[in-house]
Structure to design on (311 residues):
């Protein structure tokens, strides 16, 4: 039970960090006075990831059955998305450090989540709504 | 006298019992605190090359607070482990939406101060932010949870004014950070 709650807390923290990042991007866009279209797309993406992971994290904290599947799907999508961004960064010859750290973090989170949340001993804690 | 001693002996027990229950709200507040401390630690680290004393002090202080928050989070996640707590009694969607909505509005108005000032002919910067946050929070009054303890209009006025002040503090804090970091 502690593991599920800790995972929920980590997932909420992850979501909040995305929301904070999106907030900072909105703030800097407003201080400059313009929002180029790629920037808006990145802000919308960050807000979506932040909102979805925060909601799923709350579900994990409450051990809701839907949140287990939702998190496994979300974390897989996030791994693929970050891999894609890393590839894009590599092709654009940008600094890869930040993106590599992002990929490593989400990969470990995905490995731990898939390892533990698919286990029968963990599944029993999730209550159907 | 004996009664007073009994009350004093009981009080710590009561508070510890209440504190040691799993609460979703406490966990979320601890997480919000953790993200603020992490942000302040990051700002402190960035300040080290320019202002070593202030930078190191804030990095150590807020870094320690981050560690304390993580430790507290670990402790809270382990409470009531063997029983599935009655979370329905702790969760009120309406209350959560109103609280999150009002706080986000206050932060948003504080951070985007210059943008709104520009829209209103570059005047009324801080009073405008206060009024904006105050009125936005007040607009949430009809949406409040009527069964809640603090549902009176008087409380809501004080809460709105408090968030207005919070918004102004964020606006000043943002200017101060921009001066230091840029």
């Amino acid at each position: 039970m502690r593991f599920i709650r800790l995972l929920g807390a980590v997932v909420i923290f992850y979501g909040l960090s995305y929301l904070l990042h999106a907030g900072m991007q909105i703030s800097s866009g407003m201080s400059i006075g313009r929002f180029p279209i790629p920037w808006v797309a990145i802000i919308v993406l960050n807000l979506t990831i932040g909102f979805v992971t925060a909601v799923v994290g709350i579900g994990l904290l409450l051990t809701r059955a839907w949140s287990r599947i939702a998190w496994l799907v979300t974390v897989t999508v996030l791994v693929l998305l970050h891999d894609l961004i890393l590839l894009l960064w590599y092709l654009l010859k940008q600094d890869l450090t930040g993106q590599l750290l992002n990929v490593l973090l989400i990969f470990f989170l995905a490995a731990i989540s898939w390892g533990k949340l698919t286990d029968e001993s963990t599944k029993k804690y999730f209550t159907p709504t | 006298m004996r009664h007073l001693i009994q009350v004093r002996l009981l009080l710590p027990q009561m508070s510890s019992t209440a504190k040691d229950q799993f609460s979703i709200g406490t966990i979320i507040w601890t997480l919000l605190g953790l993200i603020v401390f992490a942000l302040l630690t990051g700002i402190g680290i960035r300040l080290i090359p320019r202002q070593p004393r202030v930078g190191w002090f804030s990095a150590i202080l807020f870094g320690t607070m981050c560690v304390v928050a993580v430790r507290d989070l670990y402790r809270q996640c382990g409470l009531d482990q063997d029983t599935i707590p009655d979370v329905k009694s702790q969760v009120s969607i309406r209350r959560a939406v109103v609280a999150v909505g009002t706080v986000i509005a206050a932060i948003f108005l504080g951070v985007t101060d210059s943008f709104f000032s520009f829209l209103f002919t570059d005047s009324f910067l801080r009073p405008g932010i206060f009024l904006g946050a105050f009125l936005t929070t007040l607009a949430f009054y009809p949406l409040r949870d009527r069964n809640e303890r603090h549902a009176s209009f008087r409380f809501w006025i004080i809460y709105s004014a408090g968030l207005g002040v919070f918004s102004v503090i964020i606006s000043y804090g943002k200017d101060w950070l921009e001066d230091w970091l840029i």
In short: Chain B has seven helices and no strands. The radius of gyration of chain B is 21 Å.
